[in-house]
Amino acid sequence: MLSLDLALALRDRGLVWQPVAGDRFVVPDRDLDDQVFLVSPMVVELREVPDGPPVMAFNGTTEWALDSLQVTEAVWLPREDQLRALLGEAFVSLERLPGEAVGYAVTLALADVDAGVPQRHVDVDAESALARALLAVGPTGRAPR
After folding, report:
1. d(CA 72, CA 124)
2. Terminal alpha carbon distance of the chain
3. What's the per-residue H, E or C state across the chain?
4. pLDDT of res. 54
5. If 128 and its partner were Cys, which of 24, 101, 104, 123 is the partner (CB 3.0–4.6 Å)?
6. Which residues contact 36 (CB under 8 A, 6 or more apart)?
7. Alpha-carbon distances, residue 11 vs 42, 65, 84 (angstroms)
8. Alpha-carbon distance 97 to 123, whole Å?
9. Whole-number Cα distances in Å, 54 to 2, 78, 120, 140
10. Up-side HSE of residue 26: CA atoms within 13 Å toward CB?
11. What global pTM score does this model have?
């Protein structure tokens, strides 16, 4: 799972989140940074509001004293499949590093960079390596559905 720092870097780079069921997120700066939430009609229901961004309603979470918050107050933790989709045609491969090396490498092919020479982005887990690759090429600005 992505670290909050990587998720914030993606958001700061322009990644826009349109929540769907199954998405993971955190609520920073409310003593909940280490708590990962899941968008689900049973727990965190997405509600459209007439004026403003969607609101996430927390069902049965009185112990957190959190009834709802705007989507813009949460930080999305994209899954591996969502990160791959955001990379689009630039994504070539994801591989576990062999031998004693710990981690994963993502290879990208970018036609407009170094005459198509592949780029590699490495991190300790697959989602983090994919996020680093996305940070290098820039997000499309829309989350895959």
Report:
1. 28
2. 19
3. CCCHHHHHHHHHCCCCCCCCCCCEEEECCCCEEEEEEECECCCEEEECCCCCCCEEEECCCHHHCCCEEEHHHCEEECCHHHHHHHHHHHEEEEEECCCCCCCEEEEECCCCCHHHCCEEEEECCHHHHHHHHHHHHCCCCCCCC
4. 87
5. 123
6. 1, 24, 25, 26, 77
7. 26, 26, 16
8. 10
9. 23, 18, 36, 21
10. 20
11. 0.78
Per-residue pLDDT of the chain in tens (145 residues, 90 and over written 9): 899 999 999 999 999 998 888 999 999 888 877 889 888 776 677 888 888 888 888 766 544 555 677 888 899 999 999 999 999 988 999 999 987 778 999 999 876 655 567 889 999 999 999 999 999 888 654 444 4
Nearest Cα neighbor of 6 from 101, 98, 139 is 139
The Cα 21–Cα 11 span in angstroms is 19
